[in-house]
Amino acid sequence: GVGPAPAGPPGAPAPAPPLPRGPPAADKLETARACLPKTAGVRTGATVVNGVLVMRWLGREAAALRQSFGQFWADFRASALGRPARLPRLWHI
């Protein structure tokens, strides 16, 4: 199996990267929180730090983490950006 990431929380071998960010992203905090899915075994969060929207996913199972992040990405893309709800292209390789 995969061990804990040295920069991640103890016992969480599957951290996920934050959402791409920028100054206007801080205005999307409530939208981001509303799009966070309830996935068993995955903890999520959204906050603003110094005007930047910061997203967090924490889980022990990579598959559940990926599913949660993918669902959020598609929902947030549609809600906040008005684009089709879909996964990042890189995930379709």
List the helices and strands and how they pair.
Blueprint: H1 29-35, E1 42-49, E2 52-59, H2 62-81
Antiparallel strand pairs: 1-2
Explain this structure.
The protein is an alpha+beta fold and 93 residues long. It is built from 2 helices and 2 strands, in the order H-E-E-H. It has a two-stranded antiparallel ribbon with strand order 1-2. A hairpin with a 2-residue loop joins strand 1 (42-49) and strand 2 (52-59).
Strands in their spatial order, largest beta sheet = 1-2
Task: Give the overall pLDDT as a whole number.
Answer: 79
Q: Which regions contain 5 or more consecutive residues with pLDDT less than 50? A: none
Alpha-beta classification: alpha+beta
Straight-line N-to-C gap: 23 Å
Total strands: 2
* Oligomeric state of the chains present here: single chain
Fraction in beta strands: 15-25%
**Integer-rounded radius of gyration:** 13 Å
- Element string (H = helix, E = strand): HEEH
Please tell me what the overall shape is: globular
Main pleated-sheet profile: 2 strands, antiparallel
Percent in helix: 25-40%
| Number of helices in the DSSP assignment | 2
Fill in the keyword field for this structure:
93 residues, alpha+beta, two-stranded antiparallel ribbon, globular
Short description:
By secondary structure, the protein is an alpha+beta fold.
